[in-house]
């Protein structure tokens, strides 16, 4: 077996200037490794790092470090690295699939407690099985077929999400233009009467890696907000540290919001079965008074394209995009329709969620099939 470092040259990307108009040069960021839903462009290639369809791309920094993409070309952002083959006997599709099977391993071995970073040493020392080129292509084709089934199921789930967004617009209109003349309130008028109902995560020094323990109270990360996935558990603190940081405690029905990176402003509602724990420094916690604003309504309002563009585009920053200061956030105007309409919206959302849950169950089976084939492929069990 060869190591990845023997087979590929690794080059980190650089931050580019995003163009407001479409150009012939795509600007690739972490979200583009998953899908083409939000294609961005840049005009300058002279000082940036270009990739071709022969390169494999991997997210280097952030909550989704280890995410793999390929068959893309353009300028790669600063949170991505490209792997350029040193040999001609390598199928990009085959190695791309292999690295996808190692994504969890790479995340588990990241450095950095606040913003995870891939370990170059760990990545370079991954051992890669390399059968003859034709066999690589055949294995990649089998995995592509399984992935197509998985992607079709994901597309169905996306349709349900689009249906809910359409319902929101029909009932409430554009939350920025507010053509329906709804009452407007600030976040301070919408949260529970509790000093910790709007709480930004603790300073970085409060959660140094050396204080983490093998089990205990969970430290919630950006990953949970970005993926609406509360099953991942990586960092824990003990009882003493939890009591010290109890003001940052996460409880069911709280909303956690990502405060930095390209997924600035992504949010998720903490489920009832979530582990007891605290937010880290990259998150904001909001506890709404649901007699004034329903969680589901807030999520769709906050996620609306026009709302995000108005209140977050100016905060992308020269380096890592950051959440606006709390003093600014507390002045954001939120439309606040009558709670009876919000309840109707929530009821409709729950009906759609039932259908979506069935599609989600199908997706889980498709994921199991794909992952089973993925593991078998690189054990030499897939012909």
Search tags:
11 helices; alpha+beta; Adenine-n6-DNA-methyltransferase TaqI, Chain A, domain 2; four-stranded antiparallel beta sheet; 383 residues; 3 domains; Helix Hairpins; globular
Q: Could you explain how this protein is built, in words?
A:
The protein is an alpha+beta fold and 383 residues long. It has 3 domains: 129 residues, Alpha-Beta Complex (Adenine-n6-DNA-methyltransferase TaqI, Chain A, domain 2), CATH 3.90.220; 99 residues, Orthogonal Bundle (Helix Hairpins), CATH 1.10.287.1120; 154 residues, Adenine-n6-DNA-methyltransferase TaqI, Chain A, domain 2. The protein contains 11 helices and 21 strands. Strands 3-5-4-9-6 form a 5-stranded mixed beta sheet, with no helix packed on it. The chain has a 4-stranded antiparallel beta sheet with strand order 2-10-7-8. A hairpin with an 8-residue loop joins strand 17 and strand 18. Helix 5 packs antiparallel against helix 11.
Strand arrangement across the biggest beta sheet:
3-5-4-9-6
* Fourth-tier CATH superfamily name of the largest domain: DNA methylase specificity domains
Could you list the spans in which at least 5 consecutive residues all have pLDDT below 50?
Answer: none
Helix count, DSSP H or I runs of 4 or more residues: 11
Overall shape: globular
Helix content, binned percent: 25-40%
- Profile the largest sheet: 5 strands, mixed
Q: Radius of gyration, rounded?
A: 22 Å
Total tally of structural domains: 3
Strand content: 15-25%
């Amino acid at each position: 077996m060869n190591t990845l470092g023997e087979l590929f040259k690794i080059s980190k990307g650089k931050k580019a200037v995003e163009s407001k108009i479409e150009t012939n040069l795509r600007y690739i960021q972490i979200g583009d490794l998953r899908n083409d839903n939000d294609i961005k462009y840049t005009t300058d290639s002279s000082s940036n790092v270009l990739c071709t369809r022969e390169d494999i791309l991997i997210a280097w920094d952030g909550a989704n470090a280890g995410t793999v993409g390929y068959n893309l070309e353009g300028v790669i952002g600063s949170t991505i690295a490209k792997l350029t083959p040193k040999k001609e006997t390598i199928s990009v599709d085959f190695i791309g699939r292999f690295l996808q099977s190692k994504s969890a391993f790479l995340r588990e071995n990241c450095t950095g407690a606040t913003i995870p970073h891939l370990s170059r040493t760990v990545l370079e020392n991954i051992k890669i099985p390399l059968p003859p080129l034709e066999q690589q292509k055949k294995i990649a084709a089998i995995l592509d077929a399984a992935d197509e089934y998985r992607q079709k199921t994901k597309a169905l789930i996306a349709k349900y999400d689009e249906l809910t967004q359409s319902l929101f617009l029909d009932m409430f209109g554009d939350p920025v233009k507010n053509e329906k003349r709804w009452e407007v309130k600030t976040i301070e008028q919408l949260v529970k009467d509790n000093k910790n109902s709007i709480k930004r995560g603790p300073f970085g020094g409060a959660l140094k890696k050396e204080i983490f323990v093998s089990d205990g109270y969970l430290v919630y990360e950006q990953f949970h907000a970005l993926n609406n996935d509360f099953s991942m558990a990586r960092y824990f603190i003990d009882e003493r540290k939890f009591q010290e940081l109890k003001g940052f405690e996460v409880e069911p029905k709280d909303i956690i919001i990502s405060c930095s990176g390209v997924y600035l402003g992504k949010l998720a509602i903490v489920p009832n079965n979530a582990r007891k724990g605290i937010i880290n420094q990259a998150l904001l916690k909001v506890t709404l008074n649901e007699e004034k604003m329903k969680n589901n309504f807030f999520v769709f309002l906050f996620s609306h394209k026009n709302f995000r563009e108005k209140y977050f585009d100016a905060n992308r920053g020269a380096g890592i995009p950051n959440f606006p200061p709390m003093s600014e956030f507390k002045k954001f105007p939120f439309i606040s329709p009558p709670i009876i309409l919000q309840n109707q919206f929530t009821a409709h959302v729950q009906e759609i969620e039932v259908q979506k849950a069935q599609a989600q169950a199908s997706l889980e089976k498709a994921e199991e099939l794909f992952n089973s084939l993925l593991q078998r492929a690189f054990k030499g069990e897939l012909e």
